[in-house]
Design brief:
One of its GO terms (cellular component) is ribonucleoprotein complex. Pfam families: Ribosomal_L33. GO terms for molecular function: structural constituent of ribosome. The protein is mostly beta strands. The chain has one domain (2-47): Rubrerythrin, domain 2 (Single Sheet), CATH 2.20.28.120. It is 0% helix and 60% strand. The chain is built from no helices and four strands. It has strands at 2-9, 15-22, 30-35, 40-46. Strands 2-1-4-3 form a four-stranded antiparallel β-sheet, with no helix packed on it. Strand 3 and strand 4 (40-46) form a beta hairpin.
Length: 48
């Protein structure tokens, strides 16, 4: 079963993206994505 998660910017902490992942994985996802608020590509981490 896949679990829906939210990705938040590490600079401004705005929650920009949603995605899903395997529920068996315990690691947090870190992806470099574009943040509209910052205006640049920043690291986005999975939030609780």
């Amino acid at each position: 079963m896949r679990k829906k998660i939210t990705l938040a910017c590490t600079n401004c902490h705005s929650r920009n993206y949603t995605t899903d992942k395997q529920s068996q994985k315990s690691e947090r996802i870190e992806v470099k994505k574009y943040c509209k608020k910052c205006g640049s590509h920043t690291l986005h981490r999975e939030t609780k």
